[in-house]
Amino acid sequence: MVKYSGYKGRILRVNLTNKKTTTLDFTDEFAKKYLGGNGFAARYIWDMVDPRMAAYDPTNVVAMMTGPFQGINIPTAGKYYMATKSPLTNGYFDSVSGGYIGAQIKYAGYDGLLITGKAEKPTYIFIEDSKVEFKPAEKMWGKLTGETQEMIKEEIGDPNLCVSAIGPAGENLVRYACVITEYRAAGRGGVGAVMGSKNLKAVAVRGSGSNQVADPAKFEEWLDWYSVEAKKIPSLVAGLPIYGTPVLVASINNMFGAMGTRNHQTEVFEGWEGISGETLKRVYWSKDTACPACPIACSKVFTVKDGKWKGAISEGPEYETIYAFGSMCGISDSGALIKTDSLCDEWGIDTITYGVTLSFLMECYQKGLINKDNTDGAEFKFGNDDVLVGFVEKTAKRQGIGNLMAEGSLRASKVIGSDSERFAIQVKGLEIPGHSARALRGMALGYATATRGGSHHDPRPTGEYAGVSDRKAVEGKAAWVIGTQQMTTIGDSLVQCHFLERLLGFTLTQKFVDMINPVTGFGYNLQELVDVAERILDLERSFNVMAGIRRKNDTLPKRFLEEPIPDGPSKGMNTDEATLSRMLDEFYGIKGWDKTTGIPTKDKLVKMGLEDVALALEKL
Amino acid sequence: MSVIVTLEKKPLIKFDVQKCAFCKICELSCSKYHYGRYADSLARITVVRKSPLMLRCHICTRCEKRFCIAACPKNALSYRGGNIVVDEKFCDSCGICVKACPFHGIRLHPETKMPLICDLCDGDPSCIKACPKSALSLVLLPEARK
Fold first, then answer.
1. Which of B18, B23, B46 sits opposite A287 (nearest CB)?
2. Which CATH fold would you assign to the domain A244-427?
3. ipTM, 2 decimals?
């Protein structure tokens, strides 16, 4: 037991090879040093996984973590955190999803699970407090995620059971297969594929315990403060509750001209209206839903009532999916987006990577680099929604060109050749989401340096949209990006949504400290919290360094470095090689990373209390 | 808000399936009110999601038939002041009431194994106050049956 609240002090280690489980106790000091979620997983994965091993090696670990906030009534923390070495980026990778399973892990008496080894046959794990069972999953193998969850709920006899499952895409090692809980996805980077490589179909957890806060009176005060202050933030009272994340389409496309279109050949989509938040709300909206314990309820269930895709129903698409399927593939019919969104969830595929990979192939088709002989006879033209809908299943099953699509855009470009890599919209192998690296300077540097590559939850675009940081500025941008990366790292360690950033701060502020201390009893000051974030980021970077990542990998697609945005409100904008290089120098300087290699210096690691990591890097 | 309960007017927590966003804050506020900690296994209200649009709320409805009282072999349950009341001296935690309730309104406390049944928090239900979507409301029967 640890003396701080919000923790159980215990991690469950599961070895699928020999079906053995052990528990791992951690100390007070460990909790305070690594906070939870992201911090815990980064540390355990560093300790347990050889970064040079292939992602599908049985020694790779799938971490399923919680932070101190799971299972209590704190807004936007109804989530869980997954991490592994990614088959897409070959680096440290994490993905956070909404879902009650985080709270259930806590209630079952653990702060997280570390799953390693490989089961001989398809298996699912059922955890009920101290009881852990390895159950056969042969009859669920090949089944979609919704049906799998239902079958497990039925088998256990609990309609309220929390199940996180992979679809056929995970089984078939699609490099960007996701994990689905209810209708939400731990989407990116192929955590689902690593589960598939372990023959692990699902994890189901039920706990009868509880979670408490350190200082109930102070915590009540904080909740009161939240309920008053949150009402003053327009996005938390109008934007997200009414429209959800699709609300972003109109402003990003029309005000900023920053919505990647037809594989970023431009960033203004003429068909934006059909896929806008307003259209989705007016024509397709059926219901608001929320992640557990979240009063915002930004998730929307959309139903297609008539037209070509009549009958399709999905929780989502979210903004990033609208970008990936809609403007990127040149499709302005929301019906097709809703249909594809539900198919991706069912087959277990990350929507962003799927859409961006497809838009990459559409540009290859446009340029004549591939033709109907390569595409199973289909017209891979921008705007063809039959391709968007039809190739989800083929990708999940790796059939025909689906086998290439299952590899993601970077690997596909290497097969296609002809310098197509210059317009593969990815960083470190991870496809870039719908926040422009050309129109937002911070996202250029942010994507280039992010642990995960093209992720909008390492750096954040929101502060630049809000004008808090000038989106065109180069000066001071490195410090800004480091600040947003610290903020997301703390968010991912608490396992709390980043949508409170307009309330709590785009970078770490005293407001984060005031939220964390009443729950945990750490008594952090702001500098200590910043150090926690830096420690975790340095640990992730060190893992990636061991896996081969250096300064040369901290870059952007050639298209972004060499072709300014051709038209629209951000016409002429981009970050060229020289500017990026200048920002990188500044970035590494502030971080305490070596400017030529991008490797964290010994001094910095020792300062962060990571002496053992410094020693490991010295041996490189 | 306080409610005067008479035998003629039975209280009911009404659930609006369209408004509910499945955030489960009602469950957390219930366990917090009764036990000072957060746990869905201690909640006397449970929301279950069957499909993207289909939600069910499991809570004591103060039904006319009182299946639980009739089923209890130890006569440990009674209806008093608008609530089903458990006499812990007589209850032996057999769980027959849990199975007897067609509304899934009863569960056993994970530690004491005593039945957990909605008691309206002394007339001012915490779940209703906590619900951010106003999906729960307190009505008095027979008005609600009209």
1. B18
2. 1.10.569
3. 0.89
